[in-house]
């Protein structure tokens, strides 16, 4: 059972979303099968009067007093199977594709729309020297559509929104304490990009589990796209705490 609140603002548009989640776990084979559901409501708002113009005289009167707010409900679902050695998951956080335009908007373009997204994830753990060193590869695929929409996202990402993307991660866990890894993010080849994949970024990261349950980490993200001419990458510091670390010391090691 979970609950989250997110607030986002970009330029003159913003959104606030409330989410409630519930997962039911069932013993299945060697592991557990989890079925999750989500209900959410989003307040989408836009106020074009927040736009700043270098020359106030050039301000378009169409944007004056042009603002609106909409409450949009949605639902999500997912399924996740995990064992001590591997996991598989598939989810659709937003089952409903929603139009963000005003009800009196007569345009036919679909750029202001909440699209249905699909996520597939998989990972495994391969002990190399018993439990002393463990290799952990993982994969995440993100798509705006399946089948016809998936093909359309590759051929024409502008119409659908973006090409399907994938994240690949490979990491090593040493003595259940030091965790180091590398990640790569890209997109499937799209005709809009000359038939080439969109190499987005590469990451290096490391984290360390302290004896008192805390976890500290550092990551570096290097941009591989055209933005690399303007960005030198980003650093991220991480701090976490595992509330179940006391019980884990007495159980069979779990990697997920």
Descriptive report:
With 256 residues, the protein is mainly β. 6% of the residues lie in helices and 53% in strands. It is built from 3 helices and 15 strands. Strands 1, 2, 3, 4, 5, 8, 9, 10, 11, 12, 13, 14 and 15 form a 13-stranded antiparallel sheet that branches. 7% of the residues are buried.
Name a few traits of the molecule:
single chain; 256 residues; mainly beta; 2 domains; 13-stranded antiparallel β-sheet; two-stranded antiparallel sheet; 3 helices; 15 strands; 6% helix; 53% strand
**In sequence order, what are the helices and strands, one letter per element?**
EEEEEEEEEEHHEEEEEH
**Strand pairing plus helix content: what structural class?**
mainly beta
Strand content: over 45%
Give me the number of helical elements: 3
Low-confidence runs of at least 5 consecutive residues: none
Tell me the domain tally: 2
Specify Rg, calculated over alpha carbons.
Answer: 22 Å
Task: Compute the separation of the termini in Å.
Answer: 19 Å
Could you estimate the helical fraction of the residues in percent? Answer: under 10%
Query: What's the overall average pLDDT, rounded?
Result: 80
The description of the largest β-sheet is: 13 strands, antiparallel
What is the overall shape? Answer: globular
Number of strands: 15
């Amino acid at each position: 059972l979970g609950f989250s609140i997110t607030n986002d603002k970009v330029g003159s548009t913003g959104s606030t979303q409330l989410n409630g989640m519930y997962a039911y776990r069932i013993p299945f084979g060697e592991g557990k099968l989890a079925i999750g559901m989500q209900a959410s409501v989003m307040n989408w708002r836009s106020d074009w009067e927040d736009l700043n113009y270098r020359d106030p005289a050039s301000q378009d009167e169409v944007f004056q007093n042009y603002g609106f707010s909409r409450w949009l409900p949605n639902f999500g679902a997912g399924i996740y199977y995990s064992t001590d050695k591997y996991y598989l998951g598939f989810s659709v956080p937003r089952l409903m594709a929603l139009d963000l335009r005003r009800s009196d908007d007569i345009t036919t373009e679909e750029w202001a729309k909440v699209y249905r997204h699909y996520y597939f994830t998989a990972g495994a753990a391969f002990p190399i020297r018993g439990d002393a060193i463990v290799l952990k590869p993982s994969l995440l695929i993100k798509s705006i559509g399946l089948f016809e929409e998936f093909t359309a996202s590759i051929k024409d990402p502008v119409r659908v929104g973006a090409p399907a993307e994938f994240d690949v991660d490979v990491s090593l866990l040493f003595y259940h304490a030091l965790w180091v890894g590398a990640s790569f993010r890209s997109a499937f080849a799209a005709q809009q990009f000359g038939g080439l994949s969109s190499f987005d970024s590469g990451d290096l990261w490391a984290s360390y589990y302290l004896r008192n349950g805390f976890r500290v980490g550092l990551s570096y993200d290097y941009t591989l796209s055209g933005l690399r001419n303007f960005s030198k990458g980003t650093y991220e510091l991480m701090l976490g705490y595992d509330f179940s670390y006391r019980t884990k010391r007495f159980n069979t090691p779990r990697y997920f």
